[in-house]
Amino acid sequence: MDFRATKYLLESVLSGKQFHDEGWMLEAPGEEGKTLIRAVYENKQLNYGNESMGLYRFADWMPVKRTLHGSSAPVTYKSTGLAKILGLNNLWITFSGYWPEKGAMMKTCSFKETEAYTVCGRMGPENKNVLIVASAGNTARSFARVCSDNNIPLLLCVPEDYIKTQWFDRELNPSVKLVASRKGSDYFDAIHLSNIAAQLPGFVPEGGAKNVARREGMGTTVLSAATSIGRIPDFYFQAVGSSTGAVSAWEANLRLIEDGRFGTNKMKLMVSQNIPFIPLKEAWDIRSREMLPMDDDKARKDVEEVWSKVLTNRRPVYSIAGGLFDALSDTNGEVLICTNKEAEKAAQLFEQTEGNDIHSAAAVATASLVQAVKGKKVGKDDLIMLNITGGGEKLFARENELHYLQPEIIFDINPDPEEVKAKIKALFS
């Protein structure tokens, strides 16, 4: 399949109003309520290429203007080891990470690469703006890798406690700059820094869940599963922080139903969080569309206790039209929780039964699957998709010498905005 710019319109989830994408549009023009926007593609049936095209084998359903160097698509395979232990006859694992034996070649070892390649592919080659990304770790590493390899200016905002996650197999292009919020801060503080930087001319926020390209990239996990299995799964397991991945899975599911070749069922979303940071669980259990009030100090304390810190997002895409509340409602989904100990045990189980190490968030998802089997929430013959959102890090580290990106500037938790703008502007002068 030769690449050509995908033909699509954008649509407001709230009103159904359609409009042309005039560049870096993150919101529906003239919309009064809070809503996500979706891409509506000219091709209702997915034309997908072969594995040599990397992530762009699914470019038919991506709002991209170009393809970029170095991508890899998620890989889906039928489990034998873990499935046998759990007594499941139809467990499929979608793996995003580094596992050459399976054909998975994501060198940042995370499905956040799927976001980075689609978001940066949405930027035309004429782009001269600095892209801004706030992250608790994996997203920053993925965007850094993609932007470095493709010479795209990038400002990363990461909490200082998480900068150890910024490792690479080589030194990065100087187009990539990292700043941090000081020790004791969390992802919310990194977002605050990014919001200040976004006020500078020539700097554009990546947009998070509002960026339709990000969601389409993450939705390739479900496209990988459906095209490998031949139909839409019955259950979908994933751990969530921002919830963007689960929303993306739901959207891909709806598009596959419209395609007509993969079935008409909606996957039951089984999303999970790591105790004690469980704001999505607390809101969903009482079917509240709005997130419940959260004390900043308690939130930071809870974050410190959580093993999988990438799941600690205080502003998930939950309440907005088209967000996780709607996705869970439409699929009769559930929010599950697990302890650090349960997640660590699940990580060991996966490595022992499947043969590769996995990230903490993927371990939370695996622990939730174990719980669901024990609680008879899933049947032995149900078609289950387990979204392993990151793995192979230990394998990659054994094969490569790692280089760590260091922050150019470390800011206070509540910095002076003008000082932040002046210092960041100077970095790219």
Helix content: 25-40%
- Work out the strand percent: 15-25%
User: What is the name of the CATH class of the domain at 75-109 and 214-396?
Assistant: Alpha Beta
| Sheet with the most strands: spatial strand order | 4-5-16-13-14-15
Secondary structure tally: strands: 18
User: What structural class do the secondary elements suggest?
Assistant: alpha/beta
Contiguous uncertain segments of 5+ residues: none
Count every helix, treating DSSP H or I runs of 4 or more residues as helices.
14
CATH topology of the domain at 75-109 and 214-396: the name is Rossmann fold
* Architecture per CATH nomenclature, i.e. the level-2 architecture of the domain at 75-109 and 214-396: 3-Layer(aba) Sandwich
| Termini separation | 40 Å
List keywords for this structure.
single chain, 429 residues, alpha/beta, Rossmann fold, 6-stranded mixed sheet, 5-stranded parallel sheet, 14 helices, 18 strands, 17% strand, globular
